[in-house]
Design a protein that fits this description.
The protein is of the alpha/beta class. The protein is built from nine helices and eleven strands. It has one domain: TIM Barrel, CATH 3.20.20.410. 31% of the residues lie in helices and 18% in strands.
């Protein structure tokens, strides 16, 4: 049983301080995306969170990425803004039909980020999960939820996610609940504690810790040192790993992603 791939990356590719900390001096802004996809294993596209993109744009992103590179796509915020998620089917359908399938094999997980004020409602969450398709025009669609209210840290939510094969973000954040229970055939971490004083975002011990966690997921294990909601482990199977350095000291995130990639490939 071989280990699954581990990809590390950042959110987006446009951030002015990266002109000083990531991109080579003098690199044209139009070349930033090409540079980013050439030096990272994945990027979480956040432009899709703010507005609907076109099929041509998704095709452009597909063609820019090298072999093995995978994008995560952050779902349009409007889709999960309704008071009742069960009423969002039309907006979810429009978003999913906007061109995501143009990414083809470059399409990674679709991230559905809930507002921090959204509380767990079993019936509503079950209705929402039932709306998420397994394929888009023949392209596999993987889904992951980022929940940011402590009410989601319950066994019933974990069971619903497992029933639908939808992952839960493993958050490294000062306020958001950490739910490390694996519920899909991939693991998705958002690491949000980078520090400006650390050239690689996290200190050596922090990077080593997350490298060990990622390797354990990829090998099919259940890492120690995380916060689990249930005592029931997921099936022991290798899981593709997506780890993104988001927020925190954002100027350090590319260095953090490359430092983690170096560790997991050693």
């Amino acid at each position: 049983m071989s280990d699954a791939p581990i990809r590390t990356g950042i959110g987006g590719w446009t951030y002015e301080p990266w002109r000083e900390t990531f991109y080579p001096k003098g690199l044209p802004k139009a070349k930033e995306m090409d540079y980013a996809v050439g030096h990272l294993g994945t990027i979480e596209i956040n432009g899709t969170f703010y507005r609907t993109q076109t099929q041509a744009t998704f095709a452009k992103w597909r063609d820019a990425a090298p072999d093995g590179f995978v994008y995560a796509v952050k779902a349009l915020q409007y889709c999960v803004a309704k008071k009742k998620l069960a009423e969002a089917e039309e907006s979810i359908g429009r978003f999913l039909a906007s061109g995501l399938s143009e990414l083809g094999e470059r399409l990674g997980p679709i991230l559905w980020q809930f507002r921090q004020t959204r509380k767990f409602d079993a019936e509503d969450i079950a209705a929402f999960l039932a709306m998420l398709p397994a394929t888009l025009d023949g392209v596999r669609a993987r889904h992951v939820l980022e929940v940011r209210h402590e009410s989601f840290a319950c066994a019933e939510f974990v069971a619903l996610a497992r029933e639908h094969g939808v992952a839960i973000v493993v958050a490294d954040h000062v306020d958001h609940p950490q739910i490390a229970d694996l519920t899909a055939d991939f693991a998705y971490a958002r690491l949000m504690r980078t520090q400006a004083a650390e050239p690689a975002g996290y200190d050596v011990a922090g990077l080593d810790r997350w490298a060990e966690i990622a390797r354990t997921w990829a090998a099919g294990g259940r890492p120690e040192g995380l916060t689990y909601v249930t005592d029931s482990p997921a099936d022991a199977q290798p899981r593709a790993v997506f780890a993104y350095f988001i927020a925190g000291a954002k100027e350090r995130n590319p260095a953090a992603a490359m430092a983690l990639a170096e560790r997991v490939s050693a």
